[in-house]
Amino acid sequence: MRKRTFHEAYTETLYDIYHNPEFFNSPRGQKSREQLNYHLTLENPIERVTYLSSRKTNIVFNFAEVLWYLSGSNDLDFISYYNKKMPSYSMNKKTLTGTAYGPKIFEFGNAKLNQWNRIKNLLTQEDIDSKRAFIQIFDASELFVSENIDVSCTIGLQFFVREGELYMSSVMRANDAFRGMISDLFSFTFMQELMARELRLEVGEYFHNAGSIHIYDSDHEWAKTVLEEAENHHDIPEFEFPKMPEGNNWPSIETVLKYEELLRKDHISMTKNDIEMLDLPDYWKQILFLFSIYQHIAYKRDMDHSLFQSLLPIYQFFVRNKWFHYFSIEQKEEIQ
């Protein structure tokens, strides 16, 4: 499959798996419909979101998850603040193993190898045409841990510099077409763009490969509703997803992570002026606006609507769609 944007790819992928499964099976007792050997080419990886209202994309979680990866953390408290289901994947209720890609990327194995820096050096100082720029995520040892419920879905990420553009290919052993694909594509293409900016290259195509792509029966009715929306409503909001600033974004990421932790732990609150005064590009300030809005939601406080008004229209769309009643006149409460 070749599509220009993820919105187009998500709709068609969901339709195909839902209506044309190759297999019906029950891995780990969870009934699902499945296809094998799925491949997608995304021509514009920066357009990494779907606008289907009934799907209720959680843009805050999308940014939180990829920043969790980039922080190198496997801390359950970090990501479970944004997704209350995450503790069910942790064996010790403190950390995550397979789902936490950050330690795999930045401290892989006993030698704690920084694969990100190795790939960057390989593509800039050694061999720009290299076919070895591969970041390993899945570790065979994960399969040898008794009753491990958190085995990495992603095998690895491969980067290619070709004709002034950075292409990236992900390889997954399995991908949930309804849920996981949304956050995985967001995170992987975000990392592709981050590396491209760091290498001062244009963002090339993104290739997504999954051994098994599936929809669980527990999501059958919701997926049906989303597909009905896609069939009956063809108008896509005319948004353009923001582009990351050129150059080295790591100082900005470190600043965002510092304030993210303070907000998450409720050590501070931030006003519109607090965020605007930070020495950050607007791209990264927008993410802090999102995290500050979510702090009000997570701690069930009255919303500071000046934060919402400071968001770009694309982010306003997602926040309002996900937490509609928080931003209605009649009622200010989170949709559960």
Automatic annotation (TrEMBL):
Alphabetically ordered keywords of this record: Methyltransferase, Transferase
SUPFAM superfamilies on file: Thymidylate synthase/dCMP hydroxymethylase
Domain annotation Thymidylate synthase/dCMP hydroxymethylase: ranges: 9-242
Top class in the EC scheme: transferase
Annotated gene: thyA
Keyword check for Transmembrane helix: no
Organism: Bacillus amyloliquefaciens (strain Y2) (Bacillus amyloliquefaciens subsp. plantarum (strain B9601-Y2))
Gene3D superfamilies, A to Z: Thymidylate synthase/dCMP hydroxymethylase domain
InterPro entries per the UniProt record, alphabetical: Thymidate_synth/dCMP_Mease, Thymidate_synth/dCMP_Mease_dom, Thymidate_synth/dCMP_Mease_sf
GO-annotated biological processes: dTMP biosynthetic process; methylation
Name by which UniProt lists this protein: Thymidylate synthase
CDD domains: TS_Pyrimidine_HMase
One GO CC term, this protein: cytosol
EC number(s) from the headed UniProt entry: 2.1.1.45
Spans traversing the lipid bilayer: none
UniProt cross-references to Pfam families, sorted A to Z: Thymidylat_synt (PF00303)
PANTHER family attached to this UniProt entry: THYMIDYLATE SYNTHASE, THYMIDYLATE SYNTHASE 1
Record flagged with keyword Transferase: yes
Molecular function via GO: thymidylate synthase activity
